[in-house]
Amino acid sequence: xxxxxxxxxxxxxxxxxxxxxxxxxxxxxxxxxxxxxxxxxxxxxxxxxxxxxxxxxxxxxxxxxxxxxxxxxxxxxxxxxxxxxxxxxxxxxxxxxxxxxxxxxxxxxxxxxxxxxxxxxxxxxxxxxxxxxxxxxxxxxxxxx
Length: 145
Hints:
The chain has 145 residues and is α/β, with parallel strands linked by helices. It has helices at 17-30, 92-104, and strands at 9-14, 39-43, 48-53, 59-64, 85-88, 108-115, 124-129, 135-140.
C-alpha cells in the first residue's frame, strides 16, 4: 500500500513582501515556527524575494510577485489560485490562542472560532484573510477538548 506523501513546503506569493513580513512573522510564530530559523533571500535569477519559515516537519514561505502582477487582486476562485490553506490545531484552545494572535496582527476575521456543523459535529475553526486577502483556516476536529 502506498501512503499519501506529506507536504514538504508551501510557498505563497504576496503583493509586497516587506509590507506583510511582520504579519507572517507573528502568524508563523503562533503556528510554532522558530523565527531564528527564518531565512530571507533575494533570488537574482528569478527577480524574487523569498522568506522561508523552516521546520523539520515542513517549511512555509512567502515570495514576491512579478512586477506586472503587483496590482492584481487576490481572489481564491480564480483558476490556479489556492482556495484557502488550513492548519490543524492540537485543540480548540489552540484555535482560540491563534485567533487572539491574528487579531493583534490585523487579520481580517471572516469567521470567529466556532463549531461549523456543515463540516462535522466537532469541526471547530477560525477563518481569516492575510493583508493581501489570502484565506487561512485554523481547525480542530477532535471529538473532545
